[in-house]
Amino acid sequence: MRRPGWFSRTALVAAVALAAAGCGIRGTSVPVDAGGAPSRVSCKIPAEDTKPAGPGAVQVAVYLVCTSTLTQVERTVPLTAPTAAPADRLRAARALLNELRQQPSPVEEEAGFSSAVPEDLKVNGPRAGDPAEALRLSIRPDELPSFALAQVVCTYGAAPALGRTHAAVLGGPGKEAPHRYDCSADVLSNPDIAQNAGWGDPLSETG
Description:
It contains five helices and seven strands, in the order H-E-E-H-H-E-E-H-E-E-H-E. By secondary structure, the protein is of the alpha+beta class. The strands form two sheets. Strands 3-4-5-6-7 form a five-stranded mixed sheet. Strands 1-2 form a two-stranded antiparallel sheet.
């Protein structure tokens, strides 16, 4: 035997369900979006925020990370006009690396830029037996974060003071021979390519 009141409770539940259906209310498993859509970054620095190079300085391009790709950013560094002298090449390489190691400026950060280059990374010139254009990093290139290696390669490859070769010849602190790393369109759009063991051609003294 059904308990008294069972019918009234059932009728009440049915009435509520019908009312909800009449108001267009539907059950859903999709979460409700309680906030606004995430803001998009521009990956561009406004022209008015780019400082012109003054006396004893030059404007250079460095590659920073933005939305998982590499993008050029103009920086002003204290450098003289580039020459082919080894000391000048090393000075330029160190100035560019210093720019990559720094945290992005507030304007760059707002535009979505970041850098993966370790703050303690250093660079030296070639050793005996290395190609003349080789540079030796304090960390083996294949031990750097993939984005960091791509940033260094593409920044060095774009530098007039380093020959603007669209590549960099890099070695580490050990005895391993330096390798040539090309800054291709694939590297710019997919810096994770640096994790590919095939990136970087070995070079010898005559390479």
